[in-house]
Amino acid sequence: MSAQIVAFGLLGGLVLYSAWRVATAPLITHAALFLALTLVGVAGFFFMLQAEFLAVVQILVYVGAVMTVIIFAIMLSTPALIRSGERPTLIQQILSPRYGAIPLLVGVAVTLLLLLAYGTVSWDQVPLTFHPSSQFPGGSTAQGTTGLIGEALLTRYIVPFEVVSLLLLAAMVGAIVLAVEGSRGKEDEARD
Amino acid sequence: MTDVPVEAYLVVAVLLFGLGLFTALRRTNAIMILMGIELMLNAVNLNLVAFSRYLPAGLVDGQVFAVFVITLAAAEAAIGLGIVLMLARKRQSVDVSDFTELKG
């Protein structure tokens, strides 16, 4: 067993266990923290796949920014949910049809369908060219894949790149508008 | 040196996607549904990056796609959670089963 396989097993266990806890944790704050753990595990997979730039971006954007926003939203919106109280056990939750059994059935069905689809592929005919880590772009040079990604973004992918920046700008303006409207609504209610 | 085959990454990504779908379907809290969507987007990213590892030398197209997915996920989280906060302020609830005005 090589170190790669051991690392893969550990990361896979970490990612899948914490994703399971996201799905089942009774407290929403615990689910949020397990989501952060899942995202860190996926960043570890990116490191194993020699995508250092993406791994760092994953930690910066997801674990840094998105998780902060999610935790803020939890604290601002549902303070009552953070406190623990009487909650149904996992078995009771699974047995309730709409919030346990049917989602579980759909999730398992989709997973099995995708796994079966992978099972029908004859992998030896898929044109995957594997490069040993030492020959992989960035594996031997100091710049890593960051330079290659930057080059691709500003040459072949320049149009999608600009469209995404426009979308990000629109999302930012939209979020500000939502926040301003929300606080104005509160003032109106106070005046009434 | 034996490396982990691409199929192993695909299987982990499928299981992660299934768990994200399960989360999004079974939770009624709007924030939890968004967290399930984030899990599914991460599963997709894992697939893209795993296949990108097998491209000819010098190509990183899969990783570029993953960059776009991460950007879209960040925008979606900002807007989605903004809407959730506004709902919480106006209706004192973030439970999606409380918002059924459009139900036919």
Question: Could you explain how this protein is built, in words?
Answer:
The complex is a heterodimer of chains A (192) and B (104). Chain A is mainly alpha-helical. Among the domains of chain A are: 1-82, Up-down Bundle (Four Helix Bundle (Hemerythrin (Met), subunit A)), CATH 1.20.120; 157-192. Chain A is built from eight helices and no strands. The N and C termini of chain A lie far apart (71 Å). Chain B is mostly helical. Chain B is elongated, with a radius of gyration of 18 Å. The termini of chain B are far apart. Classes of the chains: A mainly alpha (192), B mainly alpha (104). Chains A and B meet through α1, α2, α3, α6 and α7 of A and α1, α2 and α3 of B.
SSE blueprint:
The complex is a heterodimer of chains A (192) and B (104).
Chain A: H1 3-24, H2 28-48, H3 52-77, H4 79-82, H5 90-95, H6 97-120, H7 146-154, H8 158-191
Helix pairs in contact in A: 1-2, 2-3
Chain B: H1 6-26, H2 30-52, H3 61-91
Helix pairs in contact in B: 1-2, 2-3
Secondary-structure class of chain B: mainly alpha
- Greatest interface: A-B, 85 and 75 residues
User: What is the CATH third-level topology name of one domain in chain A?
Assistant: Four Helix Bundle (Hemerythrin (Met), subunit A)
Number of strands of chain B: 0
Structural class of chain A: mainly alpha
What is the tally of beta strands of chain A?
0
Mean pLDDT of chain A: 82
Which regions of chain A are unreliable across 5 or more consecutive residues at pLDDT < 50? none
Distance between the termini of chain B: 60 Å
Gyration radius of chain B (Cα, Å) is 18 Å
Summarize the helix and strand pattern of chain A as letters: HHHHHHHH
Largest sheet of chain A: none
Keywords:
heterodimer, A: 192 residues, mainly alpha, Four Helix Bundle (Hemerythrin (Met), subunit A), 8 helices, globular, B: 104 residues, Helix Hairpins, elongated
Brief synopsis:
The complex is a heterodimer of chains A (192) and B (104). Chain A contains eight helices and no strands.
